[in-house]
From TrEMBL:
SUPFAM superfamilies on file: vWA-like (SSF53300)
Limits of the VWFA domain: 210-369
A Pfam family it matches: VWA_CoxE
PANTHER family per the UniProt record, alphabetical: OUTER MEMBRANE LOLAB LIPOPROTEIN INSERTION APPARATUS (PTHR30634), OUTER-MEMBRANE LIPOPROTEIN LOLB (PTHR30634:SF16)
Protein name per Swiss-Prot or TrEMBL: VWFA domain-containing protein
InterPro entries: LolB, Uncharacterised_CoxE, VWF_A, vWFA_dom_sf
Organism: Actinoplanes nipponensis
Length: 374
């Protein structure tokens, strides 16, 4: 088999696609690596589907160890595929020795899926394994910090003033004024507007008064992505002019992590994922931190599944809004901003004045910058 597209389909479909042709040495090795992972899927057995060497899905013996498998996939597949295979191994098949076996940890390449797995399984690790796992946390957090710091710096470069500027920068493009000024160049037959004269805002650095940004982060297991990005976001906001950042994690208890915001690695190693959820209690705690209500932002990052008193939560959020506090209810704070959450509770909070949705860390930084720069 020489056609790469045919080989790809042969690997995806497994033995039932043998009519597409035979696999070469590398193809057979890839098929064995895929079979080691996906061959244990119970759904395959139910559907009488057999992969690779004909072994049915299930928990039967395998000649490959996890270490062997990791070595193979890193040799046989591109990095993006390796990360997907590792993520499926951890999240779909719960092969926890990827992050609890020292021999595996020494070989594995850090990536976000492994960071999530470390945070979810670190309570199982002895001190030596935890030391090796920390390498994953440090590497992934460093990459996230580098990416987000650029977005935060851009957001805080200066507030946009509503007056024209001769300096032409894409981030200061004044779309509304540009369209209005160039309507005479619209060509209906082509349905195109030709821009002859673009317009831009000016950016000015203003003297800004101190604002508080209070991140209340649900540390239940389903919120692990948001926990990671909240820690990184808080670290990037820490020390910016005009901003005082607080980070509070909660389940049924409330833990103020503000003193460790400048060290997101240590902070994440302290987080205990899982447990119940008392959102109202966390919001009450956050309310107690506020010094000047009209210069405070409370970002409640949770899936809104309240295990405590719904009436207390709604009443507290209403009181914050009535004081002039900006309350954000974020069902996700991560790079995908694609949450799963209790829509009924989210709607009830929106009804009392909270702004409810999902954001990437960069979008949250932009929101904070706009508030501070007013």
């Amino acid at each position: 088999m020489t056609d790469p597209d045919l080989e790809r389909w042969r690997l995806v479909l497994g033995a039932p696609a043998a009519a597409l042709g035979s696999l070469g040495p590398d193809g057979l090795a890839r098929d064995a690596a895929l079979d080691w992972l996906y061959g244990r899927d119970g759904d395959l057995e139910k559907r009488d589907v057999r992969r690779g060497d004909g072994r049915a899905g299930g928990d039967g013996p395998s000649q490959l160890t996890t270490v062997d498998w990791l070595d193979d996939i890193n040799r046989l597949f591109p990095r993006e595929t390796v990360e997907r295979l590792q993520r499926d191994a951890i999240e779909r098949y719960e092969i926890t020795d990827i992050v609890t076996d020292p021999a595996v940890l020494e070989r594995v390449e850090p990536n976000p899926a492994l960071l999530k797995a470390v945070l979810q399984t670190k309570h199982l690790m002895n001190p030596e394994v935890l030391r090796l796992a920390r390498r994953i946390v440090e590497a992934v957090v460093r990459d996230l910090m580098a990416k987000l710091a650029t977005e935060v710096r851009a957001a805080f470069t200066g507030a946009r003033a509503r007056r024209p500027s001769r300096w032409r920068q894409a981030r200061d493009f004044d779309m509304t004024r540009t369209i209005r000024a160039n309507l005479g160049h619209y060509r209906p037959e082509e349905r195109r507007l030709f821009i002859e004269t673009p317009h831009f805002f000016s950016r000015t650095r203003k003297h800004v008064e101190q604002w508080q940004v209070i991140l209340l982060v649900d540390q239940s297991g389903s919120m692990v992505d948001s926990v990671i990005h909240s820690a990184v976001t808080a670290a990037c906001l820490w020390g910016l002019p005009g901003v005082r950042t607080h980070l509070v994690a909660f389940d049924t208890d409330v833990v103020d992590l503000t003193s460790e915001v400048d060290d997101p690695v240590e902070l994440l190693m302290r987080v205990q994922l899982g447990g119940g959820t008392d959102i109202g209690r966390a919001v009450r705690y956050g309310a107690g931190l506020i010094e000047q209500p009209r210069r405070a932002i409370v970002a409640l990052i949770t899936d809104f599944y309240e295990g405590g008193s719904p009436s207390l939560l709604i009443r507290t959020v209403r009181e914050l809004v009535e004081q002039g506090i900006r309350v954000l209810g974020l069902a996700a704070l991560d790079q995908d901003a694609n949450p799963s959450y209790d829509r009924d509770m989210a709607q009830r909070l929106a009804d009392v004045g909270a702004s409810v949705g999902a954001m990437t860390p960069g979008e949250l930084a932009t929101f904070v910058a706009e508030q501070v720069g007013r």
